[in-house]
Amino acid sequence: MREGDGELFSALYPAVRRFAGAVRPVGVEADDLVQEAVARTLAVRSLRDLDDPLAYLRMAVLRVAMNARRSQRRSDARVALAAGSGSGRSDDYPSDLSDLSRVPPKARAVLFLTVVESCSYREAAEVVGCSEAAARQIAVRALRELRVGVEADLRTGDST
Predict the structure, then answer these.
(1) CATH number at residue 119
(2) 57 contacts 143 by C-beta, under 8 angstroms
(3) Which domain holds residue 77?
(4) Which residue among 21, 22, 37, 69 has its CA within the 20 to 30 Å range from the CA of 97?
């Protein structure tokens, strides 16, 4: 790290880590997302050179999470194809937040920023790289998808 980046990163770490925990795909550690995002960022610039280092690191974490999810899906598809089964993956240890895995990382990011971090839709839109209206629509669709999924689980008695 360049001079001053360590102190800045220490100050930003708790918020970036919380965000990574919210957007991470199942089986990927939040700290791994943060480490990869920071390493990619520092390879090209200093954190001090960024206009909004927190927003930049959140976007970097989101991109790493989306890449990890795509890789995971491709891997799951190959396993399912080789095994001749449907899913190829099960969650043996579901978390209290396992329902959030029903929606993509970008939607989780918008929900996390607006609901947990109390950011405005404008701020969330800047982080995920879309318009404010698109961020609102992403949140509405994600909440609808979560509600439908949870209601279906309750009807069938599935508590995972």
Answers:
(1) 1.20.140.160
(2) no
(3) 5-156
(4) 37
- A 10 A CB-CB count for 49 gives 11
Read off the tokens for 83. Answer: 């095994």
Cβ-Cβ contacts under 8 Å for 23 (sequence gap 6 or more): 33, 61, 62, 65, 105, 106, 108, 109, 112
**Using an 8 Å Cβ cutoff, are 19 and 61 in contact?**
yes
User: What is the C-alpha radius of gyration for the chain, rounded to an integer number of angstroms?
Assistant: 17
Structural tokens at position 32: 């791994």
Number of domains forming the structure of the chain: 1
* Alpha carbons 79 and 156: distance in angstroms, whole number: 27
Closest by alpha carbon to 110, among 22, 12, 32? 22
Tens place of pLDDT per residue across the chain (160 aa): 677 889 999 999 999 999 999 888 888 899 999 999 999 999 999 999 999 999 999 999 999 998 888 777 666 566 666 665 444 444 444 444 667 778 888 999 999 899 888 899 999 999 899 999 999 999 999 999 988 888 887 788 765 5
Pair of tokens at residue 128: 């995920």
